[in-house]
Amino acid sequence: MMKLLERIGLMARRWATYQRVRAELESYTERELNDMGMSRGDITRISLEAASLVKPQPKAQTEEDRRPALLRQRYATDL
Asked: What is the pTM of this model?
């Protein structure tokens, strides 16, 4: 179940990135796009590429993982 929620979150972040990049590129004039080496026809492709670069968020760290390595060694509990 958690895997499904992580995938949904990733897809939502990718969709938001796609929308944000597309909106920004569509706000540029033809000349501005041409100066960047692209045309209006490239906007969808570039937006999709930007969305594909969004990576999954790293897993949340536990309290133990946030401690510096020396403290983890010193205060490790032996079971």
From this structure: 0.70
